[in-house]
């Protein structure tokens, strides 16, 4: 691997090796037209179609790899990025990172959870308590904002079990379905951070021509994200109901309305953002639409 101090003309992106964000990150890069050759140890993907290489690492290491200039960008949860930034600032190291893109998947929350047989009255209730967490800096910042003095207890895994083991009184941990908390007789009571997967990068432009490569990759990534969210909604309706139907169309591009040969009927098609709910389809039907169809979009060129 090239030491960070040497000029590099290829972009290097860090993603999670395995775990929740690894596969979607790899798929996203593949959908940007990136093809690669895998190193024997499977820790490095050498980009063939673009000068973009991918490093496969533990997600906790991604922010430091960028901050230290070993990698240029990374795909990581905001929770990891924020914790790293606070840690770095508290220990007086530079290398600030920012979110270059939000990706809209990998959504979870960093929540405070308390034993489910306790009443929640507000953050002041946490004063003097031990709070088990893998995110001590993020928790400490939140406690400070709330004006509450409590004691973070750092655990790198199995945080939810800490109250039962007597290591802590309550927890601050990642939640999505809430199943893990429930299984441990805990209940989420307040949110410290809303997280999702992001493209993280330095808070300045890249050197040695790598910004141009990054711009190209991000343009493709924006297109890939838009495409993934796009749906084609098609329906038919009578001329007299057209106004009511159009008023109910989900957000998206301007619909195309076409006359159906020999009938008092039109065919409407529109590119819409995100999936179309059953209730929206039912509303459209009630307004006079029929033959409703929602299709995924394979490719798009304006
Ligand atoms: N229950 C969840 N639902 C949705 N997203 C989650 C959930 N738990 C974690 N995440 C998000 O996915 C990221 C990776 O989670 P994962 O559990 O794979 O990490 P890890 O065990 O720390 O992996 P690694 O071995 O790379 O250190 C988290 O940092 C968070 O952003
Ligand atoms: O609200 P839920 O849907 O139950 O998800 C929450 C759990 O998911 C994550 O752990 P994960 O399952 O990734 O295991 P880990 O702690 O080994 O990373 C997180 O640390 C919680 O324990
Ligand atoms: Mg990790």
Structure description:
With 302 residues, the chain is an alpha+beta fold. The protein folds into three domains: 11-106 and 197-208, D-Maltodextrin-Binding Protein, domain 2 (3-Layer(aba) Sandwich), CATH 3.40.190; 108-194, Periplasmic binding protein-like II (D-Maltodextrin-Binding Protein, domain 2, 3-Layer(aba) Sandwich), CATH 3.40.190; 230-296, Alpha-Beta Plaits (2-Layer Sandwich), CATH 3.30.70.120. Helix content is 28%, strand content 32%. It is built from nine helices and 16 strands. The chain has helices at residues 22-31, 62-67, 78-90, 136-146, 162-165, 179-183, 210-229, 242-247, 278-286; strands at 11-16, 36-38, 44-47, 52-57, 73-77, 97-102, 108-115, 130-133, 151-154, 170-175, 186-195, 197-202, 230-238, 256-259, 265-273, 289-296. A hairpin with a 4-residue loop joins strand 3 (44-47) and strand 4. Helix 3 packs across helix 4. The chain is flat. The relative contact order is 0.13. The model has no long low-confidence stretch (mean pLDDT 94). 1-O-pyrophosphono-5-O-phosphono-alpha-D-ribofuranose binds at residues 157, 160, 173-180.
Keywords:
302 residues, alpha+beta, D-Maltodextrin-Binding Protein, domain 2, Alpha-Beta Plaits, 3 domains, seven-stranded mixed beta sheet, 9 helices, 28% helix, binds adenosine-5'-triphosphate, binds 1-O-pyrophosphono-5-O-phosphono-alpha-D-ribofuranose, binds magnesium ion
